[in-house]
Amino acid sequence: MDLESCTPARTFREQPDIDPERFPLLADGQDRLPFADGFFESVVSNQVLNFILSRKRIDRVVGEFHRVLVPGGRLIATVMAEDNYFFTEYGVPPVPEEGVVQVRLRGRLEREDYYYRFRDAADVRDCFERQGFVLDDLGYFDYAFLDVSRARHYIVLARRPEAG
Ligand SMILES: C[S@@+](CC[C@H](N)C(=O)[O-])C[C@H]1O[C@@H](n2cnc3c(N)ncnc32)[C@H](O)[C@@H]1O
Known about the structure:
Blueprint: H1 7-13, E1 40-46, H2 55-68, E2 69-80, H3 85-88, E3 99-105, E4 111-117, H4 121-129, E5 134-141, E6 153-159
Parallel strand pairs: 1-2
Antiparallel strand pairs: 2-6, 3-4, 5-6
C-alpha cells in the first residue's frame, strides 16, 4: 500500500500548517524513520504494528522506535492481543498459532484483510525487549464495539535506558 495515495494521507497533506519536513509520511516498506538518533523524547505507536505483515519488519520498526528515542525517552505502543475478536471471530480457519492471519470482517465493517498476530503477552514483551527497550508496564484495554465483546489490545509502556 502506498500511504501517500490513501485518503487520510491526502487529507493530512492538504492541511496548510503541516510542514512535510517535520511530519513526513513513509511509503510502505520504508522501515527506516527519517530522523536522527535520539531525536524524540517520546514515541507513540497506536494500533499500527499489527498491519505490518512480517515479524522481521515489525522488529526493524521497533528497533527504529528505539533508535530515534533519546536515552531515557519513553514509548507507548498498543497492539491487538491474540484473543482480539479480529482473530477469534473473523480469522479464517485454520488460524495459525502465530504470524499473519487472514481476517474476513462481517457486518458493517465488511472487508478482508491480513494482520500480524502476536502469540501472547510474553511475545509482545520480547519484541520490545529484544530491541533494547525496558518495559515499565504491559497492560491492556478492551472495548465493546458494535456486537463485539472482546477487542483486547496490549498497552506497552517502555523506555530506552539511559545507557543503551
Ligand atoms: C487503526 S489505525 C491507527 C491510526 C492512528 N495510529 C491512531 O491512533 O489513530 C491503523 C493505521 O496503521 C497505519 N498502517 C496501515 N498499514 C501500514 C503499513 N503497512 N505500514 C505502516 N503503517 C501502516 C495506517 O496509518 C493506519 O491508519
